[in-house]
Design a protein that fits this description.
By secondary structure, the chain is α/β, with parallel strands linked by helices. Helix content is about 25%, strand content about 20%. The two termini are about 30 Å apart. Keywords: FAD, Flavoprotein, Glycoprotein, Oxidoreductase, Signal.
Amino acid sequence: MPFPSVDQVSDKTFDYVIVGGGTAGLTLAARLSEDPDTSVVVLEAGANNTDHPLITKSSQPALHFGNSDLDWAFETIPQKHSLDVVQICHSDWIAFRIYRGKGLGGSSSTNFQCWTHPPKEDIDNWERLGNPGWNWEMFEKYANQVYTVSEPRFPDGWKIWDASKPYGNGPLSVILPNIPKIDVPFRETLHKLGIPQAPAPYHGNPRGANITLSTYHATSYLRSSSATAYLLPNIDRPNLVVLLSALGHRLIFDDNASSNLVAKGVEFSCGEDKTPRKVYAKKEVVLCAGTLKSPQILELSGIGRADVLRKIGVPLKLELPGVGENIQEHQIFGMAFELKDQATNETFDILRDEKEYLRQGELLAEGKGLHTIGVTNLTYMPLSAFCGIERAKEIYAAEKKKIAEELKSGLYPPGLKEQYDLLLEVLDPERPEGHPSVEIIGFPGYQSFPKAPIPGKKYYSLCSAINHNFSRGTVHATSNDPFKNPEIDPHHFEHDIEAQNFVEVAKFLRKLAQTAPLSDILKLEYNPGAEVQSQEDLEDWIKKGSITAHHTIGSCSMLPRELNGVVDANLKVYGTKNVRVADLSIVPLHFAAHTQSTAYVIGERAADIIREASTA
């Protein structure tokens, strides 16, 4: 049904109550409501932004970040290992911001639209951590239910498309957008320096230079999201209800339950009216509020670490020490190079000019211009590809020694040793081929910190992300007030291996920029600049200039309970009868890919799990 009023939902009963209308939440809601006899309500804290120009137009990275109507803009506590001086979006902010989509579609409506798949081994490792069925075969099955890709238009000599392999038959439109002209010399230079073409980026092996698909509509080039793909085509279903501006507060439990907790419903508020309201669940409550909100809802419901709940004055109903723990993130930095005047006009920098922004909107209507290009060049390689095997072995050995010493000291919580064992296994530099743990991105525009760009200049940014961090963070409620955001502490650079990896990759990026044909179009290195040369200076700049990639996972990890797990392999919260979590917070160990496709897979998988349980 079209979006109802709060009175049409308040005190009503549905089979399933889903908290969060984001990437996984709307996927789950659409699949569950395929059965006309199953009623579903989604509580979404944001608005219907599906026609907002900052959402619908593709290829306008970060222009909507910090917009309170579109973005949660969570803020971390100061990070002592990051020197506490990071400037975000070149404003006066001095703390890390983690940008998460607020509104229908969640972050699928606000992200950079990259569609990538993880390496097979990264997903198989979830099963090795004690989650039967969560493996590459599962991922590929559900990913193919999510997306449909149009035949790509590759530049001459670039075609890597293998039509004999499946590329999905789902509702989400995915295409290869127009490739920026500047990406051609970037890719040619990568190959010149020994980086191969990725053999199977969408079939479990992205090692090498990838040509990356994006979530665009095939003809209009507008954004494709869980809202446009899963919700809007089904909005008239009478058994599917989505309440907007509805903030989930806490779960309502049946006090008469004799053993496991039974959720009767959810307390929420709507819009500016903070009056608590209730909606009831006949079967299950599913949290899809994301890595940074789902644990807060559990804690405000009395589920989590006893000491955390004691501090915020919430009575303990169920002690689960893993709630809000095991946070993992992709960190990223960018080196910015000013382009020569004649190089190209195809950079996102020109969108900062209001007249040019309007002109590009007109070109989009003709299927032309900046809004039809994308971030198409992503490269995944082991660290040794950038710094050599001997230096990679030194960095790896230092981390392995640190972990061994800390294990003897008993510093690690349950479950962390098992994760580190897998990380050390996949990151071993002496493994054949090596694991693609480092990402390099050629970005047509300014994507670099902490310096601000010079108005009127055009840039090409060489960015890098570390995909398998050892540092582990936390997110916890600091108040029983649901309107107060939780405290987020990602513990950036707590393990030195992350800074050392970045320093070595930064050296390689400089070498890349100084090699033709890429060097032929670059005028100078602007950030960090030629004055930053020594190992120490590079490390200092890295710690000032790196930011979060907004790929946060792990706060309600899917692990055995004795390993600090929060949910089991069926996504059910331990100690409850009918509460599940289905978003990126359940991911127990990070992976070498952008997170969008995995969030969809979790939504699809959750739907099957819930449907199977309802008929058992």
